[in-house]
Design brief:
With about 325 residues, the protein is mainly alpha-helical. Helix content is about 60%, strand content about 10%. The strands form 2 sheets. The protein has a 3-stranded mixed beta sheet, covered by helices on one side.
Amino acid sequence: MPMSDYRLFGADTSPYSQKVRSFLRYKNIDFDWVSRSRENEEEFQALARVASVPLLVSPSRSANQDSTAIISALEEDHPEPTAVPDDVATSTLALILEDYADEWLNKIMFLERWSQKPDREDAALRVLVQLYGGKRPRAYKKAQKQIAERMADRLNLVGADSANADMLKASFERFATLLNAHLTDQLYIFGGRPSAADFALAAQFQQMMMDKTPAEWLKKHAPFVVAWIENMEDPKPGAPFASLEVLAPTLTPLFAEEVSKTYLPWAKANSKAAERGDKNVSASIEGGSFEQTTQTYAARAYDSVRKAVGASLSDDALKGFLSEAGCSKFFG
């Protein structure tokens, strides 16, 4: 069988792999999915700069492992069907939500997966099966336990430790409830077709649907989110993007009641801490004081979003939305 021009090294257990795979499907790009395993580890290492997936090999660009940069480049190379909302305000808001997903909702996903049984043990077995090319090794219990323990040890590193657990769980339930209300009347977050925000957010939620505890909560409390998650596995454009005026009644609460109260204060504090070279960051968010190790990659991502927002603040609709949602102070 001939190899496609695009090859995506990824893992079903990786939200960022899901994000890129869904985007490639939406763009109708022929690609080979290479599930990372022991068998292809040598090939992966020869191409990779960091140890994590995804890794996209493309015909005209260098191998890339940054999901946000990957989908931006794919959008440029394959503009149709578009994943960029028509106007400045909504396209900029999509970038904010994409970063919320990648840097904040990921903490919640990590907490839900690795902080509790039986989710942790089930997830560790999924990782092990993937490493062995889809087959469960005969003597797997010890390796399963090692993976579970290693990932639980990383909870503190990503800010998903017990001290922050209640704040993250409240954030998850609040965001999912608000998103469910928004998706009651919208096929995707910004109307009739998906944006970067949909791909990033759905990828984190797709992981949570694999884990029993968050999956049960979502099925019970957020049925429209669950339907959207399933649709985002292989999304199709349904209609044009909607105007901000149409979206605002249910989109504004997402930003006003959640994004402006958790992710943005944390992201701004983390950015300042990285700038100063501080080892740790403390942010005042909804529910208390959120403390963790300073995240330098997340700081760069937020700085990039902040620049994009700053370059678009001459747009009155965006300026008005951010002001009403209590987000302006994070982009001044």
